[in-house]
Amino acid sequence: MTTTAELIDLSRLELIPYQSPISPKHFGRLAFNFLFVAFIIMSWFTIYLVNKQKEQRSLVKELLAAVASSAFAGFGLIFLVMWTGIYL
């Protein structure tokens, strides 16, 4: 019968270092691109709200713009934080 210590023998494992799928040298450019796209969508959203009458606005367009903008801004901020050296 095997004991728990034999089942959890970590000396037999080969540890492989983790390699990120995205090279850290690209974090700055990715942060800039994601934040730029988020800014463009937010600008379009603001212009859309200012130029349209309340009755002419579409809730679907507003929600799509808000979700897309927040997703791009979120990824942009994550890459910006990682670029500065704070790994999440």
Walk me through what this model shows.
61% of the residues lie in helices and 0% in strands. The chain has a domain at 24-84. By secondary structure, it is mainly α. It has helices at residues 4-7, 27-51, 59-83. Helix 2 packs antiparallel against helix 3 (59-83). The mean pLDDT is 89. The protein contains 3 helices and no strands.
Output the keywords.
88 residues, mainly alpha
Tally of separate helices:
3
Mean pLDDT over the full residue set: 89
Quote the distance from N terminus to C terminus.
43 Å
- Specify the oligomeric state: single chain
The dominant shape is elongated
Kindly estimate the percentage of residues that lie in beta strands according to DSSP. Answer: under 5%
SSE arrangement, N to C: HHH
Structural class: mainly alpha
Determine Rg (CA atoms, Å): 23 Å
Proportion in helices = 55-70%
Poorly predicted runs are: none
- The count of strands amounts to 0
